[in-house]
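Please predict the structure of the following assembly.
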Amino acid sequence: MPVRSKLAFALASTLSVACYSLHGSEGGGEIDTASRRAPNPNDVALADGYSIDVVAVGLTFPTDVVFDDQQRLHVVEGGYSYGERFTTARLLRFETNETWQTVAEGRNGPWTGAVFHQGNFYVSEGGQLEGGRIVRITPKGERTVVVEGLPGRGDHHTNRPVVGPDGLLYFGQGASTNSGVVGEDSKDFGWLKRFPEQHDIPCQDITLTGKNYETKDALRGTDARVTTGAYMAFGTPTKPDQVVKGSLPCTGSIMRVNSSGGPLELVAWGLRNPFGLAFDAQGVLYATDNGADERGSRPIFGSADVLWRIEPGAWYGWPDFSEGRAVDQDRYAPPGGARPARLLAAHPGKPPKPAAYLAVHASADGVDFSTNPSFGFVGEAFIAIFGDMAPRVGKVISPVGFKVVRVDPKTGVVRDFAVNRSEKEGPASLIESGGLERPIAVRFDPSRTALYVVDFGVLAVSDEGITPRAGTGVVWRIRRTGAR
Amino acid sequence: MTKRPHRSFAFRVVHPALALALVASAFATGCGSERRSEPLVGRFAPKSGAETHGERVFFTFCHQCHPGGEAGLGPAINDKPVPGAAIRLQVREGLGAMPAFEATEIPDRDLDDLIAYLSALREHGG
């Protein structure tokens, strides 16, 4: 390219970065007020040949639905929301007289989901207060711990279990941090002061570059400076070639355990927050994974959410890769900032490529596969897209998510399936409609002909904080009504 | 001494003008709605092998910042009548926060197909 053109382009690029930096964030949670929620199916647009109706309203922080062996609908209320809002976590049964019966309740939220297996419920206690657990709950509400002591006290938690073809319980364990380093953002989440020793745990031995980050002493709230390295507690630096031993349980991983208890087994690692898990009809495991945010000591720009096809034993790249691409390059540098530094001196492997790339900051959460031709789109993964939490995760130009998408894992093509009717994308509270707010889970019913969508409810986000609204959760149901 | 190749006035002007036009269009109000969501405008069906392949290229490299061609981390592209040459330039050179994609990452033929897909998507329901 001629020099003059290069200069012109450089000028254009500089102006573009400046414009982007000055442009305010316009995320879906950046609402001034949230009026009373009145769900209206007419405000939700669906793919041709499908209809939606409301099954339940007035729920508080719901995270999942599950059906028992009598095909009775149950809802999991999480008991915790970002914004440090703690409520009672509950497993509720929807009775025939359209009332809710409490099967079990607890305080170690967020309860991120449940599965019904061989006569019992298996619930993931996310672990914000007591560490993560998988507990067995009988239909009468009796609890037995299957596994506990999971590292769920950080940014992300112990996630919803699924049952594999081998009868084992598989679950995701989110990372404690955004990108491997405990920082001032960890205090913003609320857990740093509760658990100052919390940090990420590798699943296998790793060797660090020794890169450290200096921040204010967020733990003590003074102006003193502290230095923190990767996979270390806040204020603990690292050295080049320092080895951090791997162990189980570990963060940023998928593990499995026998439903009767016993030792944990590692399935995959190097993930960030594998929130949704689902096996396809061929018994292949897939996981949704939330990409990194532009926050904390090591912000990463432009990191996609993804759908992974899980290969047993594979390392998926976090914290040094995003969507299979190394992050120590300019494209992941925050505008006007430095590229993220490499944290691992040696990488355990080459990360696979995603089955699909989803939108940055979308928060791709629950996933389930269509298997019944009566519903359609057999073999495609349906994903609940919770929606962005800008500006806390980074800036967006326009709201991202707040819908249900379908993904063809063979091609990576993503298509909207259920969205709000509006000129612009966004949650119902922003666009002032009765549509979707924040889908967090999708689950086909036992007949596989109806897709249930769990809608977390209103979650407002600003520079000052995160404000969830109790009692605004909804369960929707989508069914096929005609030929496509 | 190597003689510098003659560049026409149009060429000397076009590249910088395209660059500045891209910046302006990136943040300018688009023409019409940016939404191409299937529930709103119907399913997009590629009409050629180029569009089919271009769709896959889009979802591998573009969708994460321009979800479905709508605004997200990056601006909407569905509602911007940007010519193919300008798209090619922006993909190859990057612009501001948008990274450059070299031919080793998106080969020329893939870029041609991507442009065909973006053009078809813009017309679909727009």
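DSSP finds five helices and no strands in chain B. The first helix of chain B runs from residue 9 to 27.
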